[in-house]
Amino acid sequence: MKDSIVGLTLGIRYTRSFRIPDISGEIIDHIIYNDDSPFDSKLFPRIQENSNREKILFHPETNEYLRINTDDIILGIEINEDFDKKYEWLKNDVLSYFQNILFVKFGLKNIKRIGIIFSHKTKKDKKIDEIVKKISANNISDAENVNISFSKKSAAQEGIFRKGVKDFQNTIYNFEDMGESMQVRLDYQYYYEPVVEDLRQCFIKKVLEGAEQFLVNNFYTWLNEQE
Question: Which domain does 191 fall in, by range?
Answer without folding.
Answer: 2-225
